[in-house]
Amino acid sequence: MTASRKKKRWEDQSLLEINRREARTSFYGDSAPKISLNGEWKFQYLDAPELSPEGFEKADTDQEWDTIDVPSVWQMRGYDKMHYTDVLYLFPINPPFVPTENPTGIYKRKIRLDRDWLRQDTILKFHGVDSAFDVWVNGCHAGYSKVSRLPSEFDITELVREGENDITVRVYKWSDGTWLEDQDMWWLSGIYRDVELINEPKNAILDCRVDATLDSAYQNGILTADICLKNYQGTVNWRLEYRGHEISKSSVYSKNRTVHIEERVEEVKTWTAETPRLYMLTVSTEEHEIKVRVGFRKIEIKDGNIRVNNQVILLNGVNHHDFNPREGRCVTYEQIRSDIILMKRYNMNAVRCSHYPSNEYFYDLCDEFGLYVIDEADLECHGFEWVENYNWITDDPGWQMAYVDRNVRMVQRDRNHPSVIMWSMGNESGFGNNFKRAAQEIRALDSTRLIHYEGDSDAEVTDVYSTMYTRIQKLQKIGEMGTDNKKPHIMCEYGHAMGNGPGGLKAYQNLFRRYKRLQGGFLWEWYDHGVYTEKNGKKFYRYGGDFGDFPSNKNFCIDGLLMPDRSPSPALFEYSQVIAPVEVTRTEGSIREFQIKNYFDFLSLSVVEIDWFIEEEGTVIQSGIMDHLSAKPHNEEWVEIPFHSFRAKANTDYYLKVCVCLKEDVNYASKGHIISTVQFPLEITNTELSERETGEELTFKEDSHLLTIENRNISVKFHMVYGKMVSLSKDGKDYLTDGPQMTVYRATIDNDMYKKEDWMNRYFIQKSSEQTEYVNVKSKEDKALVTIGKYFGCLNQSWGYHCVYEYTVYPSGQVKVNLQAQRVQKGKLEPEFLPRIGIFMKGNKELQKTKWYGLGPGESYPDSKSASSMGIYDSTVDDLQTRYLYPQENGHRENVKWFGLYADQDGLLCKMEKPLGWNLSNYSDESLEIAQHPYEIEEAEDVLIHLDYLHSGLGSNSCGEEQQEKYKVKLQNFSMTFTLQVVDKDHFLTKARERYWN
Ligand code: IPT
User: Fold this and answer.
1) What distance in angstroms lies between residue 940's CA and the mean position of ligand 1's atoms?
2) Where, by residue number, does the polypeptide cross the bilayer (predicted)?
3) What's the pLDDT score for residue 233?
4) With a 6 A CB cut-off, is 182 part of the ligand 1 pocket?
5) What is the model's pTM?
6) Which of 59, 482, 661, 862 could serve as a FRET partner for 805 with CA atoms 20 to 30 Å apart?
7) CB of 461 closer than 6 A to ligand 1?
8) Is 468 touching ligand 1 by the criterion CB < 6 Å?
9) How many domains does the structure of the chain reveal?
10) Any domain includes 691
11) How high is the pLDDT of residue 684?
């Protein structure tokens, strides 16, 4: 006999709420007094709601309860367990049902209300509770709500009394809502956003829906406001101000508890992300006053393009999750404010609320600082894709109202914000009727914005065609299709900032700038979701799987432009330079003439100045400012940089560096803030050859297979069996502890995750070795010449290299190394490309300081070097590293012409005949490969030195495009030459500049 399963309250997708008020706008200002209910609450954690103690909702429970701070997520307070998955639900797919073992938190607190307060109404507002909850006030059920990332308000006027009041909230981790909240993030629960009581006037202004658009000439503003009153019949006053100046005001008599305002604002100051001008609308009655900030702007699709105020815009955006390493999804106003300021400082103009509405203040800040927002409904059911029934609930009419509710409440809350330009109906949820209905409902509420949903892959109901992680070739095709009868395209996600990378961003930006149809994209993502941990005296960040959580997508959540400690990753600098709204290029054939292209959509170049510098390998020898730029948006102008001719020093490079800086203070940065930096080689060459210093005659000594060639300036040892230089020393001190040996391997980066298996378990690139073919030693004039033939290959591979290492030891103490590497293949199997080709050697561990001339100061890779410039930089070996949360290849610098490695005075100078890629590290590639967290990386006994003829790009293949072909290192012949010498560190530069004729 089977009885039908009884639906529990939290397993009923058609029950959207009990007693929850209609969603409404969040006012910027409100005269109604508020009491914050943040702070300590009594807390009881249970394994299932049914296990709640008898009478828990009653005012006086005398059980021993824990305390918990609100807002917080309970998993970060020691209850339940941490679990991270990208796609998977943690239980069987059986919607709307959820596990019987359903972690539950009962929260209780008391609040005293006085008689004065009780004269008005009492509204209890939760800004965010994950995932569903019941509320009791003084023992009576006050309501039920869900949708974790939206507010819920309950009118509890009838339930409160003078004196002490008891509030009980029972929060369910799993609910039918969970089926729609399967975003790629930690599973976290509790009252995680603010809670407050609002003392709402009996005659309150309940809602005020503002639409501030422009007339057909985009000159004058048209303001309409629809005000909804609770009980009030009477006069409603309103006033519109701009920066404290009254623009207009009037009074209207309410009709059926509504008021409609329409006002024309002549010569209005428009809102755009570049000019975030806000008016203030104040609406008042005798009892109540509210404020709404108003931005006049118009969003349209015209001629196939998204336009703001009739101008085609390009979105240079980022995906933002709410996250804090100690608090999970619980963030603060201060954190979000600094996020938004950082986005602005790094040239972003747009943000997508992936994948749920953020806190109310998020939008206020975007309005104020100027970011276009895609506001996204809290809706994702990605796990259904896994079972190959993606549209299971997306097409089920029984779920329709749940889809609609999530969208409609978002719109009702956020529709007054000028920053919001698109409503996104959710993420990764297939496509079906429930989205079609949601789109209709959104349009009925707000037709002034565009609708987005990537899952609507034919853009059947959306206004924009959105794709994610689209490969370059495909994107180009989308661009080439043009705008005729086509919807504009955006990439809601691209450029996966997981670990080291993404590289190749410039290729995307070039397409965005080239094709009219492509209107930019949103990088994935802002912040690493690492969890701060102190354990056994170690401080580190945990990711999925570190809590014994299985299955987990591990470090797939460590994919942000900001590390959890909020330090910018190299990718943030790269992205900022790639999207910089002012582009400086040199006119071909000229050294002084430059084109300045204005990629701002609204600002003219009069807001910036050009600070230029003539650099002599990093030292400024001339500089100037040009502040008369004027190009209009999307236009360009040409300037001549008026530097004087100068006498070039011998063997020295000169660069012209151009910084585009803000001319005035703005709210996110001060005057002088650098928007873009580019450097141009001046190609002024003054080659001077000198005679190489001499020195005592070199002596040769061979003992136990070790050949020592030395004089007072140098001592180098070669192993005659291993065919290798094994040390380089002077005055009894070793500088090199092992000489060059070829390598093709780098510690796998996240973006190589799909290459790793082949590279390491098929081609065994980490298992390389060299075999000695011959060692020839001879002296030629006063020099020693050691020529070593080697065969380089990897375990069980038929591809490899014939290498000829030629060492020339000079009496001056210099050792010139020339490597000629010829590829061989005697079979067929070989990798499509390699992480790198070059050599590595070892330095004395005591040498922990470095100076180099090359790209810097931060790390650079062939497809990610826009943010670096040529210069002479200083660092310690450790400071060259980027401490990626998940250890991997890092700290590489491209285009290095020389480097010095030293401890105190004397150091090893290595200068290249042609620039090479370079890494210096205290950690071997193998230890980086094995370690799961930075503290586990085993320190090497030497300083490890890589010199790369070529290093592969980073790409974005952990989710997205591979390295582009031109950034893949193919098996190819190569050669490299560099000279090693021990010199006083203060002479690195002079020595590095010497060129010899002999
Ligand atoms: C895409 C998701 O939308 C996002 O939440 C995140 O998981 C991102 O990928 C990767 O970090 S989904 C992916 C299947 C393209």
Assistant:
1) 36
2) none
3) 86
4) no
5) 0.97
6) 862
7) no
8) yes
9) 5
10) no
11) 86
